[in-house]
């Protein structure tokens, strides 16, 4: 009688004679289920690693001179002026979100900080070094600001915007933003000093501890408060983007 080798449950058994019908397994996990789960996890890990390695090749290609980071079918082909501006951004800043660093840039990119950002120079967040995390109001301070009136919030913004812009050397470029806040504040018929005086001293003291260390864009973030209203918030966002573009043009001129 021929000797038959049989693979069963990771063991090699020698089967002699007719095969015996195995008894059905009772209430235990089927043998292949764990194997399928392991294969699925391994396959997912392998696919993730393959995707990461492929992205490394893409990132190296993006670093070549003249490479348009938006090329690849996801965005429309830029016209000549747009391509020139994109190359200028790459020359002065590592990403679009870095324009205006350190006072006007967007928040630091968490993916770049961890060592890899797939968006590269097209990323909308800052890829430049920040000595410390952007200063922002804590939960208690945000609650205090929420209880203030619209004129009081605008008065706080005016108190800090001008000095920061003057100290950082972009007072002229920031004129539109400051004037926008001034016009909105004037609609309420208050003087800035009067509005600030109405804020409880204890509240203003606690807010000042953080506001004194905030960036220009952080102070503008006060416009996101509910009492400010949507139209003015949208105007502030648009004005801030124009300010970033003006700051970029100023930096570009200095490098020529």
From TrEMBL:
It comes from Symbiodinium necroappetens. Keywords: Metal-binding, Zinc, Zinc-finger. GO terms for molecular function: zinc ion binding. A zinc finger (C3H1-type) spans 108-130. Residues 108-130 form the C3H1-type domain. This is C3H1-type domain-containing protein. InterPro entries: Znf_CCCH. PROSITE patterns: ZF_C3H1. Transmembrane segments: none annotated. Residues 18-40, 60-85 are annotated as: Disordered.
